[in-house]
Amino acid sequence: MRLTGAQIIMECLAREGVEVVFGYPGGANLPLYDTLIQYPQITHVLVRHEQAAAHAADAYARVKGDVGVCFGTSGPGATNLVTGIANAYMDSVPMVCITGAVVTSLIGRDGFQEADITGITIPIVKHNYLVTRVEEIARTIREAFYLARTGRPGPVLVDIPRDVQQQVTEFAYPETVQLRGYRPHMVPDPHQVQRAASLIAEAKRPLILAGHGVIIARAYEELLAFAEKTDTPVITTLLGISGFPGTHPLYLGMPGMHGMYWNNIAISQADLLIGIGMRFDDRVTGRLKDFAPHAKIIHLDIDPAEIGKNVKPAAALLGDVKQSLQMLNREVQSGDRGDWREAIRRMQQEHPSILIREGSSRPLPQFVIRSLYEVTKGDAYIVTGVGQHQMWAAQYYWYDKPNSFVTSGGLGTMGFEVPAAMGAQMAVPNSVVWSICGDGGFQMTMQELATIVEYGLPVKFAIINNNYLGMVRQWQQLFYKNNLSAVHMRQPDFVKLAEAFGMPGLRVTEKDDVEWAIKQAMDHQGPVLIDFVVEEEENCYPMVPPGAALHETIDQPKFEHEERLTVRP
């Protein structure tokens, strides 16, 4: 059949199983939007800013477990996607971003709203395309989805000039994809598997460091079986949270810059580290030359570029994490690390890390997060922005539901929390989604409250409002002689703001009202915003100072009155 380029795009999306697209129209993609009505099976979400389209597609992809899709027009429409594309690239999220370009005769002539988006995005995509012939659209879209979802996932951008969208050709959908030089390595070398099994059998103080790769590969059962069979404690990176049950006896929480004190010390004492689907990022390792000085390293990852990049492994299982763990589980012996687990338990008692001091009547942010966990009973998807609230959400909420923690890791993007919550809710429409927001980051993308109300998405927002850019203020206090420069924020009335957008707003200034407000939000069928006015200068601990090693972690300060939380609920 003969179709226009725009129809071919939509036909390809339908055949790829796309159900939701986040986007914004403009002159260069009007032919695409003119065709949308012909595909009622695909829901288009009209965001208020293209950055939100990318973040929403990102979170949708993470929670749904498939490729997220976003549209943008040329010039500023495309460049507004850039932050969201970079965020997805750093966190290995499969996305296909389709942008309109100026007509082919104007490319390179600085036409109105022209930007070289393929050139701009080269460092932050898995691949990108500029399609100048209508006959190439079907093959390109098919390849884009294949690249986005295979191997180490990532974003792919396809830029299509307006006139190419309007041209007509015979449509043929390519059923298979063959890309010369692109062969994702899925199955690890059996000899390396045997080598890893031997190292595990010899180890007295092993630790598992599980990352985002476990969630991407949906390797939850394999990781659980491996940890239980070998009796090995499990630590998860920030993006690995919810890849292993948060209340399991073997689970120890997060390591690194704001990880648990006991984890950082345990890493420094371990004789074997098993890194699974993680890249030994600086936020995990601290000062790299002093990272895990007594440990041999086993590294499981699908990306050959990550093997040996930051640490030198004694065994490297290059391949899909799920398949690698399945093979490893057949080789490893049952273990008993009771002495090692007891040593860690003593560290937890001596340095409990998760403490909530009594404070004043004003709620502490840690108390808000813990109350959120208790009211939801852990049965919610938690989406965060970046900053102190993000770290507290990682520390004080425990995630038994697989893949229930959505946050910006590698890029650390403020403003992620609002549009990402929208994308997550679209992926799981019948589940509870809470967006834990910083008061600063919330204001970067708060316009998407209009989108959330328009589409009837029941997202619940918890703004941790301390009138500061909290993490920056903490660094200035600790490392810049308390020179509080450009960090205090005079906030708007968030309750009135919520009401202006068409959703209920609540303000909480007393600790005793925290649980009540959360329950009120849970009982409401639609979106709700809660402004939690918390202690302004609360710091996030534990903390590894910049440039320090893990064994130099600053522990939670001791307070005269404190409520001690158990390590697990």
Describe the structure.
The chain has 569 residues and is α/β, with parallel strands linked by helices. It has three domains: 2-170, 3-Layer(aba) Sandwich (Rossmann fold), CATH 3.40.50; 190-350, Rossmann fold; 355-540, 3-Layer(aba) Sandwich (Rossmann fold). Helix content is 37%, strand content 17%. The protein contains 23 helices and 22 strands. It has a six-stranded parallel beta sheet with strand order 3-2-4-5-7-6, sandwiched between helices. It has a six-stranded parallel beta sheet with strand order 11-10-9-12-13-14, sandwiched between helices. Helix 1 packs parallel to helix 7, helix 3 (50-64) crosses helix 18 and helix 9 packs across helix 14 (321-331). The radius of gyration is 24 Å and the shape is globular. The mean pLDDT is 96.
Q: How would you describe the oligomerization state of the chains in this entry?
A: single chain
Mean pLDDT: 96
Number of helices, where a helix is a run of at least 4 consecutive DSSP H or I residues: 23
CATH class designation of the largest domain: Alpha Beta
Q: Which architecture of the largest domain would the CATH scheme give at its second level?
A: 3-Layer(aba) Sandwich
Quick one: CATH superfamily of the largest domain? Thiamin diphosphate (ThDP)-binding fold, Pyr/PP domains
**Alpha-carbon distance between the termini?**
60 Å
CATH topology of the largest domain: Rossmann fold
Low-confidence stretches: none
Percent in helix: 25-40%
Rg (CA only): 24 Å
Strand tally = 22
Neighbour order of strands in the largest sheet: 3-2-4-5-7-6
The tally of domains stands at 3
Structural class estimated from helices and strands:
alpha/beta
Shape: globular
What's the main sheet like? Answer: 6 strands, parallel
Please state roughly what percent of the residues sit in beta strands, choosing from under 5%, 5-15%, 15-25%, 25-35%, 35-45% or over 45%. Answer: 15-25%
